[in-house]
Amino acid sequence: MASAHFSLAQAPAAVPGTSAGSLPSLGETSELSAAAERRIGDRIAASIYRDPDYIDDPVLDDYLQSVWLPLVAAARTRGELHAELDERFAWQVFLIRDRSINAFALPGGYFGVHLGLIGAVGSVDEMAAVLGHELSHVTQRHISRMLTQQSRQTPWMIAAMILGALAAGKSGDMASAAIVGGQAVAAQNQLNFSRDMEREADRVGFGVMTDAGFESRGVSAMFEKLQQASRLNDNGSFPYLRSHPLNTERIAEAQARVQLASLEAAKPSRDKEIGTGKALVLHAIMAARARILAAPGVDALRSMVAQAQRRGTPAPLQSPASADNVRDAGTLYAGAYAAAQLRDFPGAKSLLEKLRPLIAADMPQAASTVDLLAVEIDLIAGVVPSTAASVDIAKATSRAEVLTQARSLMAAHRAQDVSNRLQTWVAAHPKDAMAWQLLAVAYGNQNQNVRAIRADAESRAAQLDYPAALDRFKAAQGLMRSNPGSADYVEGSILDTRTRQTESLIKEQALQDKLDR
Ligand SMILES: [Zn+2]
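^ thats the input. predicted complex w/ zinc ion below
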């Protein structure tokens, strides 16, 4: 997920650590500089990439981006995201394989979203409410102010502390919570936002999400969910409640804001699959996918299949989509994907066919998601997807389409088509680790070994593992020297440049680490 598709097109690929050497390091100043905060964030991000619970699912990722990018753009237009922060920070969201309902902001413009949040919210607007709030913690420099209060700690210690708190916050992971133990609890108390910061993030986040074209009632719906959970004392599956305690004041302010917004002239709607019913169908499908990718266990998968089979023939599609249509779409997608996970492939396909009539002609994103699931079911089954012979990957546009079709074509031994498409893709999205990884395989299948190793190196660099990247860049250089015909002049110069760049990055990082310890 590390990728240019995350970092905003406007932001130059800010190389972490560069030009930071001249800036005061943490502790020497009362204000944490954006560069210093980004360094702490990069350290945390590098650990998240190595965490087995980090998940890059291109389908959910595209969906998340369709919420995230309008929010960031709105913050920029409103003047809350100013140019320096825009360029310095990552503005990147990590998906975390965790069933609990949580989202959080990290230093340096990194954010985390648990699969449980996507699976639990009822609409894209509720998701926008949460993400707008988290985004505003960062644009309002709450993180920086909070970290400044920790100025007696070194950046290394702060990064370790935040990672400890993250591990402790994972649901059902008592082991790691116990390991970090009291230290993490203490850390979490120190790392909580103040009540004033929460109110400010509520206020700014509301403006951001409504300006981005989302429905303001997403905020009240989310607050109702949180309130219900806190009444049930359901903090275990709602870690979001621990970091965002509800109080009557916050709730009253949010309700007043939603009321006021509904009285004002409606803001122009974002170009989404709206008509509300359409957006809800797409969301139901994405929420179903999130619940399955959160690895709920065999029993839960079986019950999803059973539930989908019980639906029989779904009610015909209404315009706009009815509540029944929305529910059926989610249930059938969940059933089809769950059946595939349980290796009942004919069952998966038949549920998927029942889902198709619920996707209207004017729901292209939902339609593409259903088509991709058909491909995915074949890939899980280990057969060449039926569409692989005819698909034109040059026409694939979304990240999910490009990467899923690439896997499909690899299965059909069309490696050259894959490398042609992915070469263009990584040129535009140089931080897309998964695309580089697939490109490495595609080159390997064509015996272009120097290119294959370099693509592998790039995928490591995209996930901030510079030593591993350097290792592979050097291996590719070695291969080229021992076998002069193995790559052309252009490839050789790119390789030399990237090797030098990575070497100096590692040197700078080592220097900075000494200062930060
Ligand atoms: Zn908050």
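Residues 133, 137, 193, 198, 201, 244 surround zinc ion (CB under 6 Å).
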